[in-house]
Amino acid sequence: MEIIVLPSPELACLRAARTVANLVRSKPDAVLALPTGATPQAVYAELVRQHRDEGLSFARVTAFNLDEYAGLPPDHPASFRRALHEALYRHVDLPPGSAHGPDGLDPSPTEACQRYEAQIATAGGLDLALLGLGRDGHIAFNEPTSSLGSRTRIKTLAEETRAANQAAFGPEPVPRHALTMGIATILSARRCVLLAFGPAKADAAARLIEGALTAMVPASALQLHPRATVILDEAAAARLTLRAYYETVAAGKPAWQREE
Predict the structure, then answer these.
(1) Which of 83, 157, 155, 151 is nearest to 121 (CA)?
(2) Cα separation of 81 and 4, whole Å?
(3) Which residues are catalytic?
(4) Sign of the four-CA dihedral 217, 156, 43, 167
(5) 29-63: per-residue pLDDT in tens?
(6) What span, in angstroms and rounded, lies between the C-alpha atoms of 34 and 82?
(7) Which of 64, 107, 132, 228 lies in disulfide reach of 39, CB 3.0 to 4.6 Å?
(8) How far apart are CA 128 and CA 194, in angstroms?
């Protein structure tokens, strides 16, 4: 696992955007798994800027949302499909048919999740999964105690997660269930990049990086991934015991490992 600590969320997002852009330039038909929420917004803004100013093309990219609320239509203001459309898809040249999300309205969620897994496989598998980190250590909607071998499925959301997402719903209740890529689905990606910012994420980040591999911290499964990168700001890195070592590793990278 590669640990990168940068002075601010803005610089961290620029670093993550550079990783995504480098992949898309080197593999124009890249398959991406993308999150919503506040954390990746600056990543998407930078990708839009590179599309506009530097010719970064998404014309052959395939994108999969990490998750979606059960029972929510895709045009609902709080749906993740709409959030990604507003933040990224409508600003770049990604074909509408190349943007996929779990079908939260399907009356058979199990079958919808199986179809989603089949879509990912048909696309050639995930090249990169961009991830955020929940305060309780969840990734996507894989709440604590999620199976580390899980695939896309329906999950009951923790009350803390629902409370964290309440603002997007205003007076409406946050759905109690969501369809989410499983941990094994995420680990199948050829590259994983996780972002975490602020003091509220410091404990989860430390447990993810330096704690035990456990279903109680679903993000700790990234310890098993051969090419996972965790990008933190100063506040999120505050509880890391081995921070000096991570900085030594980053500074001593051979030229062939560096991402320009």
Answers:
(1) 151
(2) 29
(3) 67, 136, 138, 143
(4) negative
(5) 999 999 998 999 999 999 999 999 999 999 999 99
(6) 13
(7) 132
(8) 11
Is the pTM higher than 0.85? The answer reads yes
Q: What's the maximum distance between 2 C-alpha atoms anywhere in the chain?
A: 53
| Cα–chain center distance at 180 | 11
The two three-digit tokens of residue 23, written as one number: 């992949």
User: Which tokens belong to 249?
Assistant: 């590793």
- pLDDT tens, 169-198? 999 999 999 999 999 999 999 999 999 999
Q: How far apart are CA 106 and CA 115, in angstroms?
A: 11
Q: How many CB atoms lie within 10 A of CB 213?
A: 12
Closest CA to 135 of 148, 144, 126: 144
Name the residue among 158, 140, 127, 98 with its Cα closest to residue 27: 127
Domains of the chain as residue ranges with CATH: 2-257 (3.40.50.1360)
Closest to 216 measured CA to CA, from 148, 159, 166? 148
- Provide the residue type at 229 as one letter: T
β-pair type (99-100, 192-196): unpaired
Tallying the residues shown for the chain, one arrives at 260
Three-state SS letters, 185-204: HHHCCCCEEEEECCHHHHHH
